[in-house]
């Protein structure tokens, strides 16, 4: 019993390590903005705390730093294919490749509050 | 009967307090209850650990963005089979209460330039 659970945890560890190795490239890319990580289109709204979108309606643009990479990817792809509508986001997303979407999403996932702090509304 | 002006004033002030304070407290309680009942199962008990990574973290998100999202899900302007169903029965007050509760929670979400 003990032995098999040890084996299992060994196998799990090996799996974790190999997927970590695969993620290395994404992690490295996430560190810096550039042609592969075209966040220059994002920062004008999403890197200004409290920034309000004024069209089509007035509300603060969502915080995306610290959001999960997979959610940001899903959101950008939904805008790109028209499943989700917002004039500027649709325009931005239509200009991005799958690879750029992944890179931008990883970039923002890595830019949350750390450690987690209480936030004001 | 024995009540002078002073007593009447104190009585009125007491009524005002009883009415005003619990209204806000009740809204917060309602928001918390709604969030636990309607959101936690998928978005996580802390609203940061969703059961599916493509679902967003909600804790600490801006209140007005959460409200807009829920309104858009309610009207169908934003489409998601699950969220459209969840948002449909919510009133404007429900949407405000739940968004206010979620926005005040601690979390990693940030729009700081880093």
TL;DR of this structure?
The complex is a heterodimer of chains A (121) and B (114). Chain A has 121 residues and is mostly helical.
Describe this structure in words.
The complex is a heterodimer of chains A (121) and B (114). Chain A has 5 helices and 2 strands; from the N terminus they run ααββααα. Chain A is mainly alpha-helical and 121 residues long. Chain A has a single domain, classed as Cytochrome Bc1 Complex, Chain D, domain 2. Chain A has a two-stranded antiparallel ribbon. In chain A, helix 3 (69-81) packs across helix 4 (87-94). The longest helix of chain A is centred in the first third of the chain and has 30 residues, at 2-31. Chain B has a domain at 25-103: Orthogonal Bundle (Cytochrome Bc1 Complex, Chain D, domain 2), CATH 1.10.760.10. Chain B contains 4 helices and no strands. Chain B is 62% helix and 0% strand. The model of chain B has no long low-confidence stretch (mean pLDDT 88). Chain B has 114 residues and is mainly alpha-helical. In chain B, helix 2 crosses helix 3. Chains A and B meet through strand 2 and helix 3 of A and helix 2 of B.
- The beta-strand count of chain A equals 2
Low-confidence stretches of chain A: 10-22
Strand order of the largest sheet of chain A: 1-2
Largest interface: A-B, 37 and 31 residues
Distance between the termini of chain B: 68 Å
Mean residue pLDDT of chain A:
80
- Overall, the morphology of chain B is globular
- What best-fitting shape of chain A do the alpha-carbon axes yield? globular
Give the total of domains of chain A. Answer: 1
Distance between the termini of chain A: 50 Å
- According to CATH, the homologous superfamily of one domain in chain B is Cytochrome c-like domain
| Strand-residue proportion of chain A | under 5%
The SS-based structural class of chain A is: mainly alpha
């Amino acid at each position: 019993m003990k032995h098999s659970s040890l084996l299992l945890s060994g196998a799990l560890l090996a799996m974790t390590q190999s997927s970590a190795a695969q993620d290395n490239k994404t992690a490295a890319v996430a560190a810096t903005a550039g042609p592969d990580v075209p966040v220059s289109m994002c920062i004008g709204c999403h890197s200004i705390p409290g920034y309000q979108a004024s069209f089509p309606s007035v509300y603060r643009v969502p915080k995306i730093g610290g959001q999960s990479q997979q959610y940001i990817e899903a959101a950008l792809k939904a805008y790109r294919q028209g499943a989700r509508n917002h004039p500027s986001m649709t325009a931005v997303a239509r200009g991005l490749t799958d690879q750029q979407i992944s890179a931008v999403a990883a970039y923002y996932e890595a830019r949350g509050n750390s450690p987690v702090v209480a936030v004001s509304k | 009967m024995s009540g002078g002006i002073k007593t009447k004033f104190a009585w009125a002030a007491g009524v005002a307090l009883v009415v005003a304070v619990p209204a806000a407290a009740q809204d917060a309680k309602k928001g918390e209850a709604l969030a636990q009942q309607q959101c936690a199962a998928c978005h996580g008990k802390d609203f940061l650990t969703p059961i599916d990574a493509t679902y967003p973290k909600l804790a600490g998100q801006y209140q007005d963005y959460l409200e807009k999202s829920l309104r858009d899900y309610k009207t169908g302007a934003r489409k998601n089979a699950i969220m459209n169903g969840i948002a449909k029965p919510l009133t404007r007050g429900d949407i405000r209460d739940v968004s206010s509760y979620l926005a005040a929670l601690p979390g990693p979400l940030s729009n700081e330039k880093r």
